[in-house]
Amino acid sequence: MASHSQRGHALGLDLRHAQVVALSTGTKCINGEYLSDQGQVVNDCHAEVTARRALLRFLYSQLELFLSKRPEDWEESIFVRHKECGYRLRDNVHFHMYISTSPCGDGRLNSPYEITTDLHSSRHLMRKHRSHLRTKIESGEGTVPVRCRGPVQTWDGVLQGEQLITMSCTDKITRWNILGLQGALLSHFVEPVYLHSVTVGSLRHTGHLGRVLNQRLERLGPLPATHRRNQPLLSGLSSAEYQQPGKASCVSVNWTLGDAQLEVVNTSTGRRRESGTPSRLCKHTLFTRWNRLYRKLGIQVSGSTDHQLMYCEAKMAARPYQTVKQQWFRSLQETGLGTWVKKPPEQEQFLLSV
């Protein structure tokens, strides 16, 4: 697999004692015709995104230790009980992300420090859209700026051939710096989990990336006590050895601590390459793990009754998370950086198979 697209997460502050907990590769997104209304595909196979989904599997495994009746198993977890029935990270646990090239989007496109040769001729065209939200190109590479009022993606439109729109990795990392890596579902159980540091292998200097990430936070306004404007430590390795020319691979590989083997995903279909079955990173698989914790840990989802929750209902019920997300979306629009483009809602309106 092309090492230039490898991403990883590690634990700990002293990197000599760090432990790698998630790894991934990949540079492409799904073809719109393969979208799933049962949550059985991975839409975005860029390595930053799949590494974060691989990290979610690790976070679930750490919470699942609390399903044991043995207190010594609880002591193995990176989480500790907090408040009524929630959990938070232990004080000595930190997450570090390594990215071998700058994340796609504005963090890469307008960087004067990236070790590359193909962007200088078009630099004057980029200034107009500096710091804007950008979207990935379906089945290809590169990004384009979003319009001031982003398009509304519809299920039938995408299935009939309209290009599927996915936000850039720069934009998603900025989102994680506000909402946390854990996402909406795990917010029912844990306080936000933030990156402590980000290292970019190909960068000589992190000034531009830092400005991009911080500019998105400027007009956010006050946040609830649970959230913060996270500003991870940034560093670059100035390494050109990962710049391998040639066509990008159409597969994405993922691994999480505890896995016996790698999983290889076809980026065009968002499913396992060999069998065509759902990836262990897909929404349906992660929702299955969430539902087990939800039933056994006794966490109450606000507004829920005894009926089975749809995936979208479980996410929307994480109210503090959703409130901060909408606050951030508004601040992006107010600063003229663009509108976050959402996938068609039908892809999240599924129940788990009984």
From TrEMBL:
InterPro entries: A_deamin (IPR002466). GO terms for cellular component: cytoplasm; nucleolus. Residues 22-350 form the A to I editase domain. GO terms for biological process: adenosine to inosine editing; RNA processing. SMART domains: ADEAMc (SM00552). One of its GO terms (molecular function) is tRNA-specific adenosine deaminase activity. Pfam families: A_deamin. PROSITE patterns: A_DEAMIN_EDITASE. It comes from the Eukaryota. This is Double-stranded RNA-specific editase B2. It comes from Larimichthys crocea (Large yellow croaker).
